[in-house]
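Could you join me in thinking about how sequence relates to backbone shape in a protein? We need material for that, and I hope you will provide a protein of your own picking. Once you have written the record down, we can walk along the chain together:

…
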Amino acid sequence: MTAAETAAGSPAAPAAPVAVVTGASSGIGAATARGLAAAGYHVMLAARRKDRVEALADELTAAGHQATACALDVTDRPAVDAFAAALDRCDVLVNNAGGALGADPVATGDPADWRRMYEVNVIGTLNVTQALLPALTASGDGTVVVLSSTAALAPYEGGGGYVAAKHGEHVLAETLRLEIVGTPVRVIEIAPGLVRTEEFATTRFRGDKEKAAKVYAGVSAPLTADDVADTITWAVTRPSHVNIDLLVVRPRAQASNTKIHREL
């Protein structure tokens, strides 16, 4: 009998399944962590901003959920490998870390911005997926979620670098699904359209709140982080034999990346 068993001799409750969420310090990542915690997962909150994930872990723990804060830069492969090695198990991986920088045309786009977007969105997803795939397989019922974007499916002017990175992430998910078919691991891709979060557009425009606001101007109800998190949680909690290969979710006002109804 282990120390985890009760004095009366009854075995302890089975350990909760573990879900790793990258980019969990804000926006869709934080909302997804809340959704999965409420669904019964022990959520590993991975992000660069340790203070933010620690605060979220405290919030979830106070609500009776299980959560652990982890400082992690997904582009740092040695750190990712060390993070993976420290986990006893992993049942779900949500590759949410990513982002956009700039909105310049291809002719004048900054190569440094393109490189950073590729590193975070594609190589970051590759790093964490490679590091955790053995544990996901060993779980006997693993799930990899790749949070891409409608930018992964169609281009738009001024989005070349982000579109290229998200296309890369989309193809990573599609290829992985082909390569691991027959193993007990699902690969789910969620591709959101126009989502209003506290940081995405502001980061893209380097803190220019006026430019960021124009992205959502006239759109009465863009998606929220909670909308996307609800979609991710729903997909992850389907029966094991059900795989949501690709789910595109947009606000009603958005028909495509370039067709958005604005009430101006």
The first helix runs from residue 27 to 38.
